[in-house]
Design brief:
Blueprint: E1 19-21, E2 31-34, E3 39-44, H1 57-68, E4 73-78, H2 95-111, E5 116-119, H3 127-142, E6 146-149, E7 172-173
Parallel strand pairs: 3-4, 3-5, 5-6
Antiparallel strand pairs: 1-2, 2-4, 6-7
Length: 176
């Protein structure tokens, strides 16, 4: 059974990514984006179909939102870097991969002088995502990087996934 959907879409005009980490295709991805002078870093759940050549619905919704908010760049990251459209199909948890993911996100925040990030992961349906979230939140807290979200948190206290959210432009901040 394939782990990543075959449903693909094109990027919005002028928004094709200029950065992918790692640059070669792997079963995981730490970051995908088009950094600018005022870049929004987004943390989703886990990567799916988006690549350099084509996007997916979540990435396109994120791009549309950050442009509307006045950002000139975007970087899509995730709680856990394993590619899987349905998190139920994920492999066994890899502690090293989760820690490297957190380090990559911190490095991007430092490189692009990002002090707050958009939390957009929804309720993690898999232990890999929950464990990785704990690692990432600990690292972000140590670095004093804030997490904003839109709308109310889920019942479980997580920022809502962008596909299921009306973005009102009002940032709220996660307490962690």
């Amino acid at each position: 059974m394939p782990k990543v959907t075959k449903i693909i879409v094109t990027y919005p005009e002028g928004q094709r990514p200029t950065m992918v980490i790692p640059p070669e295709y792997k079963p995981y991805r730490y970051a995908l984006g088009r950094p600018g002078d005022h870049t929004c870093l987004i943390v989703g759940m886990n990567p799916s179909a988006a690549r350099e050549e084509y996007s997916d619905r979540t990435v396109n919704k994120v791009i549309k939102t950050v442009v509307e908010l006045g950002y000139d760049g975007w970087i899509m990251t995730n709680l856990y870097p394993e590619r899987a459209t349905d998190a139920k199909n994920m492999d066994e948890f890899d502690q090293r991969l989760a820690e490297e993911n957190a380090e990559q996100i911190i490095a991007l925040c430092n490189r692009y002088d990002i002090k707050e990030i958009w939390g957009a992961w929804g309720d993690p349906p898999h232990d890999n995502l929950i464990k990785s979230k704990e690692i990432l939140l600990k690292r972000l807290s140590m670095e004093k990087i804030r997490i904003f979200h839109f709308g109310e948190l889920t019942r479980s206290g997580n920022p809502r996934h962008p596909l299921y959210l009306k973005i009102d432009g009002e940032k709220r901040y996660l307490k962690y």
